[in-house]
Design brief:
237 residues, alpha/beta, Rossmann fold, six-stranded mixed beta sheet, 10 strands, 26% strand
Length: 237
């Protein structure tokens, strides 16, 4: 069976400065796959390239067998890829409801939008209580819930999550990762970037380790958790 997402020998960078050097990875339907590595490893650049916010200089990105390497983000979201960027990027002065409805901009059927709202409220009940509150007035954890929920409003096949734990109190990190597992159990494939390596690998099926834009390790989550090199370099063990 072909992978849902496949990146083949991707090279990309900014203003002629290379950041990703020959990266290849794949994500199969139904999986949670983690991309881990230190700051500056190229994790977010990889995500931005997959979703169409930037394009590879060389290489190919396939989604459900279709070449999406040159598609803009506005088109990849219509294909079923939803990207939740680092630092959430909500519209701060819009309400929770307005942020969520913007996430469903590709859907014209109001009944489908209402159904998706119901689904995200079942996942994040607190958002229903904050429905008419502006995003800027919510806590960091609530904003992260809203960002994930907004990403789900497009009805994605693949949900891409960039640094979920950033800026969250430790007590909230566990809840956010539990939400990712619940989303995956509903049939949504997940690709996530995370600096909290142990926490990410504990919920993932497989993982890729990036170092200065190059793939240095890959394997099942258990193999990476048990790797002395990964434990020493990324978990302080």
């Amino acid at each position: 069976m072909a992978a849902m997402l496949e990146a083949r020998d991707i090279h990309c960078g900014y203003d002629g400065v290379p950041v990703i050097h020959g990266l290849s990875l794949e994500v199969n339907e139904g999986e949670i796959v983690a991309i881990i590595g230190a700051n500056g490893a190229g994790k977010s650049t990889t995500m931005r390239t997959i979703c169409g916010l930037m394009h590879p200089d060389r290489g190919q990105i396939l989604f459900q067998g279709e070449d999406i390497s040159r598609l803009p983000a506005s088109e990849t979201i219509r294909k079923g890829i939803s990207y939740i960027p680092e630092a959430r990027r909500l519209f701060p002065r819009l309400t929770v409801l307005e942020n969520l409805e913007l996430g469903a901009f590709t859907e014209k059927d109001r009944s489908v939008v209402e159904e998706r709202l119901s689904e995200v409220f079942s996942l994040f009940p607190k958002l229903k209580d904050r429905l008419h509150q502006t995003a800027e007035t919510m806590s960091g954890g609530e904003q992260q819930m809203c960002a994930i929920a907004r990403g789900l409003m497009s009805g994605p096949k693949l949900l891409m999550l960039d640094e979920l734990s950033l800026g969250l109190m430790p007590s909230l990190v566990e809840k956010v990762f539990e939400a990712v597992t619940a989303i995956n159990e509903k049939g949504i494939t997940v690709l996530l970037v995370e600096q909290l390596v142990q926490e990410a690998l504990e919920i993932a099926d497989r993982g890729y380790v990036l170092q200065t834009g190059r793939l240095v390790h890959s394997g099942t989550a258990r193999e990476l958790l048990d790797s002395p090199e990964v434990r020493r370099a990324y978990m302080g063990m």
